[in-house]
Amino acid sequence: MEHRTVLVSGASIAGPALAFWLARHGFRPVVVERAGALRLGGQNIDVQGAAREVVRRMGIEGDIRAAATGEQGLRFVDEHNVTRAELPAGSSDAGAFTKELEILRGDLARILYDRTRGATEYIFGDQIKGLRDHGDRVTVSFEHGAERDFDLVVAADGIRSRTRALIVGDEPRIRPLDLYASYFTIPRGPSDGAWARWYNAPGSRSILLRPDNVGTTRASLWFLSPTRGHERLSSAEQKALLARVYAGAGWETPRVLAGLAEAEDVYFDAVSQVMAPRWSHGRAALVGDAAYCPSPVSGMGASLSLVGAYVLAGELSRHADHRGAFAAYEKLMRPYVDRAQKLPPGVPWIAHPKSKLGISILHGVLRLAFSPLVRPREGWPGSSAADKIELPAYSSGG
């Protein structure tokens, strides 16, 4: 096989995973990342269902287990920190909030980077500025580096991908879920343990605190709101906004806001999904959140990235022509993505009641739903019921 060159934009999960399989199939991957170095921050992500089989085929399941967060499950607590409902970690994927393979996003990124840097050229501190598809190759211009020619280009740079528009224009629709979220790391406190804790405050506000494996606590703030452009504010403005929104929320809010004020790894965005009518054009394609972000509330983002990377690279290895490969990739992945993006009725609004009465009702419903008699059939919304896809066995990687 001709050793075709593939430029991949983004070095988080989907990009390095794609580079892994491309190299396995005989391609020469190059990954460009806007950040100056590998981004190692981030919150818990899980590897479930089909993605677990993908990481087994990659030979990194043991690495993921060794870097697991150790989270034992999820507890819904009230303003007095009394547990009102709890869902233990699952020994399998079905029905659990905390999955068997639970890892920090940055730890998984490091594992993928370490497994690919020997066969992949990484370019940090730069980004794609323009693409010129000549039919037999793509000329790529960069923000800083010199122009280069590649056989193929793939955008794997997240929900706010800048490369996506260069490939498919404004066709994709960013579907907001009327929910804002912020993630950051705070010092571990005496009340933090091995269980994640979810607190609901009146006004459709919630706080989630999760343990990690490095002695700190991963915090996230969620509040219902129509998209108002808050995601475009400066970091300082976003912190001030969150302080106003969560004023008087009770529980451990003062501690969390104090940690937010000092945090340097704050991520803030409108929770959304990417609805793209096509994932390729010419000699370029999309993968992961850039193509089909299902939103964090689905619990399927990492799985779609890992599986999508596996399938895209595999189909490129199977087809002599990129057009046939891209079509086969989309045909196989589209039903899987559609199921992952179909959120249960009432999500995310049901998890963020406006009143104290609504919160009390939510706790009662969760207590029933998480009981041992019901849990195997119901469990956590957006779990592995949507995670069904028949993975092909590709000649060099499956």
Summarize the structure in words.
- With 398 residues, this protein is α/β, with parallel strands linked by helices.
- The chain has a domain at 5-69 and 104-173 and 273-344: FAD/NAD(P)-binding domain, CATH 3.50.50.
- It has eleven helices and 18 strands.
- It has helices at 14-24, 50-58, 61-66, 105-116, 163-168, 235-245, 253-262, 289-292, 301-318, 322-341, 356-369; strands at residues 5-9, 28-33, 44-46, 73-77, 83-88, 102-104, 121-124, 128-133, 138-142, 148-150, 152-155, 173-187, 196-201, 205-211, 216-224, 267-275, 280-281, 284-286.
- It has a seven-stranded mixed β-sheet with strand order 5-4-13-14-15-12-16, sandwiched between helices.
- α9 runs antiparallel to α10.
- The protein is globular and about 65 Å long.
Q: Keywords, please?
A:
single chain; seven-stranded mixed sheet; globular; FAD/NAD(P)-binding domain; 398 residues
- The CATH homologous superfamily name of one domain equals FAD/NAD(P)-binding domain
Per CATH, the class of one domain reads Alpha Beta
Element order, helices and strands?
EHEEHHEEEHEEEEEHEEEEHHEEEHHHH
Count of helical regions: 11
Principal-axes geometry comes out as globular
Beta-strand share of residues: 25-35%
Provide mean pLDDT, rounded.
93
CATH T-level topology of one domain: FAD/NAD(P)-binding domain
Query: What summary fits the major beta sheet?
Result: 7 strands, mixed
Low-confidence stretches are: none
What is the CA-CA span between the terminal residues? 18 Å
Radius of gyration: 21 Å
Helix fraction, binned, reads 25-40%
Oligomer: single chain
**CATH architecture descriptor name of one domain:** 3-Layer(bba) Sandwich
Spatial ordering of strands, largest sheet: 5-4-13-14-15-12-16
Count of DSSP E strands? 18
Structural class: alpha/beta
